[in-house]
Amino acid sequence: xxxxxxxxxxxxxxxxxxxxxxxxxxxxxxxxxxxxxxxxxxxxxxxxxxxxxxxxxxxxxxxxxxxxxxxxxxxxxxxxxxxxxxxxxxxxxxxxxxxxxxxxxxxxxxxxxxxxxxxxxxxxxxxxxxxxxxxxxxxxxxxxxxxxxxxxxxxxxxxxxxxxxxxxxxxxxxxxxxxxxxxxxxxxxxxxxxxxxxxxxxxxxxxxxxxxxxxxxxxxxxxxxxxxxxxxxxxxxxxxxxxxxxxxxxxxxxxxxxxxxxxxxxxxxxxxxxxxxxxxxxxxxxxxxxxxxxxxxxxxxxxxxxxxxxxxxxxxxxxxxxxxxxxxxxxxxxxxxxxxxxxxxx
Length: 346
Hints:
Elements: H1 3-22, E1 38-42, H2 53-58, E2 64-68, H3 79-91, H4 93-99, E3 104-107, H5 110-113, H6 125-135, E4 152-156, E5 163-167, E6 178-179, E7 188-189, H7 199-210, E8 216-221, H8 239-252, E9 257-261, E10 267-273, E11 280-286, E12 304-309, E13 313-320, E14 327-334, E15 339-345
Parallel strand pairs: 1-2, 2-3, 5-8, 8-9, 9-11
Antiparallel strand pairs: 1-13, 4-5, 6-7, 10-11, 10-12, 13-14, 14-15
């Protein structure tokens, strides 16, 4: 063989080997007995935009990261295209380094599940669900792999200091919405008897709460659950389903519940007093890792605590276990880790 050709082939093969070694997708596992004191979360991440913010989130030393939707933007029915967009995120050097340091859980929203405002009629919902679970490295023996939808439950921590994370799927089973034919305050007409979770997911959620021994319960909903007045997607477009969720909390009475949501390209904290529940229910919305609404436009939310934050952001939930009951503090951080809002979850 020509020695120049040999050198070329040798260099090319070695280059492939080095490149393969550099692309390490090993995710740090979530240890079942880990004491969770700091949980980071966020949504609305465009895989084609700058991802260096992961270095800032890493400085928080979170015990866990939770995606609350729109992990990537891949509006398509073509699963090869969607898989490629997930891969772009996963091979990003900043994200790859982060996932080797921090365990990751999550759920899709519309732009990674299917297309804008997608629901149960999305024709590729089953393979899309599989792509999400593959991206998150969910093991093949996990219960979520054996049923429809991407809803999941994880109980983490030593006995007496357990956190239960209930990841809701608000896309796979969600009923249709009709666009409002009139230009008004709402984009959609309410589907008054429509559902968000579907029969099986409701039954699963009730079982998870009835049997729970955890002392903190975190509900992950890709769309906002508490706010009622804004123009976009929300549980309030399905008033019967939203009421059912509150009734389920009243029935099961989980300790220290809190909702985490995304979708909106803003950050805000909401709080509601629910009948038959002895505590205020909080929701922390963190949305806009790579793109957010930047204008200071007023938006009504009778349940808002503090200000609407139209900035790039991520969230942190801190848990202090030193007292008789855990003390929760929610933080909204700017993408440069500046503190935008802090709220004690009472």
